[in-house]
Design a protein that fits this description.
Elements lengths: L1 E9 L2 E7 L4 E5 L6 H10 L17 E8 L6 H6 L7 E8 L5 E5 L2 E3 L1 H11 E5 L9 H12 L2 H48 L5 H13 L1 H17 L4 H15 L5 H29 L4 H20 L5 H67 L6 E6 L15 E6 L9 H4 L2 H18 L4 E5 L7 H14 L4 E5 L3 H4 L4 E8 L6 E6 L2 H13 L5 H12 L1
Parallel strand pairs: 3-12, 3-13, 8-11, 11-12
Antiparallel strand pairs: 1-2, 1-4, 4-5, 5-6, 6-7, 9-10, 13-14
């Protein structure tokens, strides 16, 4: 329930602090005093949007805060799922800057506006005289039935299954479209794959072939230079090997004169051996180097094929071509297995549909079973508010087998007549404003007994009623307040007298700028306020006595 509401810098409100009680809270005041402004401020912490032009002082930010007692209303799971700190006394706060930007908090944890609204809908239902139009809304009418049917867990399971089914159906259509498109391209894809597979590509092949071709194209020069090198090292008159041989002979003759010459002989001998090995390898390399026109043609043709494939597929390496070949193989495999995938998904979809239909039928049975009791309870409450001749029929047009939506297969429609014997029709076509208000009150009264909603607010829904009817409407609200907190804004003394607590909203004109104020009335102040509602601003003794009788009744 709403325990406390503080409003700072909003519309005609400079600052306001209201502590509400359990039971029936009555709010009265002259037209224009600011009752609707208070509700407007409250709606901001319930997730509604606002504009900075409604500030009392444009130099300051607007802050609205509501303290709610939420223990016993099964909201712990919601707080856990949304990563919020659960407190028995939970605070919703909204801060709006003069530039229109706002921040929202739940127990000091920042939340977005959607989250604030979602939580607000679980805490308060605000029903105004203009909201009776929703009574003809099919979604609202179905919500009424579902609220009483008490199958929220089954409904949630159904909706989850429904969205899974819709997702699978969309996936199937996409798969069919992709498969048809792929089949139209299959021959071309197969040709591309076969072409690449036939090429038997090797990842590093291109670099190796290019190097070999370069050597073949320059074989004559390579062979000539190798021969010349061999000649210089071992065959010319001044060949290096001959020079080494003579040098070793000379040093060997000196070794007997100086031991250090022996070390030089060993070193020179090692160099001589290494040089002989080099010459031998050069000779082998020269022998292996041949001018091979056949091999040159083979490599050229192979590279031409590789370059052609690379150009065709707009890549620059064999590794990229191999990746394309792998992708083509995957696509061809998918095409070949596409029909199987479609068939498997179709079977899965049929299974999901069967489960969905079973849940939809279970929901429908629950709703059908609850409808007579809903009709009975609403008509009973209507009789309590002097509409005993009213007739209400809840019609359920069950859809054909496969025409289910997020709510199941039921299409609920409320048909109404304010008097027996008249043709049933949609409420807006056959009910006056006062009758619609009483019908909505009856419906809300019924819903509140089956849902764990902490608070309901009625904003002048007593329009079009008076006298004994107003008294009966007040009695229904009083009865309703046994199940939840009720806040009622009213101009009728008969309803005002039923409250457990009474608040007067008034305009304070003492300052430079008029501002809206509110105060909780004492018993004597209530007598005076109800008397004013009966007879005007200066009530006489008879009006005061009448007010006392209303309050005591």
């Amino acid at each position: 329930m709403l325990s406390r509401l503080t409003i700072n810098n909003y519309a005609l409100i400079d600052n306001l602090d209201i502590a509400f009680d359990a039971g029936l809270n009555i709010m009265t005041g002259e037209t224009g005093a600011g009752k609707s402004i208070i509700l407007g401020a409250l709606s901001l912490i319930l997730g509604q949007r606002t504009e900075s032009k409604y500030f009392f002082n444009q130099q300051k930010k607007c802050v609205i805060e509501g303290l709610f007692r939420i223990d016993g209303f099964h909201l712990k799971k919601y707080f856990e799922e949304n990563d919020l700190d659960y407190e028995a006394e939970t605070v919703l706060r909204r801060e709006i800057n003069s530039d229109g930007k706002s921040r929202a908090f739940v127990n000091d944890t920042p939340v977005n506006l959607a989250s604030l609204k979602q939580l607000g809908e679980k805490l308060i239902d605000i029903h105004s005289q203009h909201a009776t139009a929703e009574i003809n809304d099919s979604n609202f009418q179905l919500l009424v039935v579902d609220s009483i049917t008490n199958h929220s867990e089954l409904l949630e399971q159904y909706r989850n299954a429904f969205f899974t089914y819709k997702k699978s159906a969309t996936q199937l259509q996409q798969l069919i479209a992709e498969n048809e498109k792929a089949k139209s391209e299959e021959d071309y894809l197969q040709f591309q794959f076969d072409e690449l597979e036939k090429a038997s590509l090797v990842e590093d092949e291109q670099e190796t072939l290019e190097q070999e071709l370069y050597a073949l194209n320059n074989a004559e020069e390579i062979k000539r230079n190798l021969l010349n090198t061999t000649y210089l090292l071992q065959e010319s008159e001044t060949a290096a090997l001959n020079q080494f041989k003579e040098s070793l002979q000379l040093l060997n003759s000196l070794e007997k004169f100086n031991p250090k010459v022996g070390e030089l002989v060993q070193r020179l001998t090692s160099i001589n051996i290494e040089l002989k090995d080099i010459v031998a390898e050069i000779e082998d390399l020269e022998q292996a180097t041949q001018v091979d026109e056949v091999r040159t043609t083979q490599i050229s043709d192979r590279l031409a094929l590789i370059f052609s494939l690379q150009k065709k597929h707009r890549v620059s390496s064999n590794s990229e071509l191999l990746k394309i070949q792998e992708d083509l193989s995957d696509r061809l495999n998918k095409i070949q297995s596409g029909d199987d995938s479609i068939e498997n998904l179709q079977k899965q979809l049929e299974k999901q549909k069967t489960e969905l239909q079973n849940m939809a039928l279970a929901l429908s049975k629950n709703r059908q079973k609850a409808i007579p009791e809903i009709e009975k309870q609403i008509l009973k409450t209507l009789a309590d508010v002097d509409m005993g001749q009213a007739v209400l029929k809840i019609e359920n047009n069950i859809a054909v087998k496969e025409a289910f939506d997020k709510n199941g297969i039921d299409h609920i429609r409320f048909l109404f007549s304010a008097n027996k014997g008249h043709k049933l029709a949609e409420m807006s076509k056959v009910a006056s404003g006062g009758e619609l208000s009483r019908v909505m009150l009856s419906i809300k009264s019924l819903i509140s007994r089956y849902t764990a909603l902490p608070t309901i607010i009625f904003d002048e829904i007593d329009t079009g009623v008076s006298g004994e009817v107003a008294n009966k409407v007040g009695l229904v609200m009083e009865q309703l307040s046994k199940f939840l907190q009720v806040v009622t804004i009213t101009h009728l003394p008969q309803i005002a007298s039923k409250g457990h607590s009474h608040y007067l909203v008034y305009k304070n004109d003492t300052g430079k700028i008029p501002s809206t104020k509110i105060k909780k009335l004492t018993e004597e102040e209530r007598v005076l306020e109800v008397a004013k509602m009966l007879s005007g601003s200066k009530p006489g003794e008879s009006a005061l006595q009448n007010a006392r009788e209303l309050l005591n009744s």
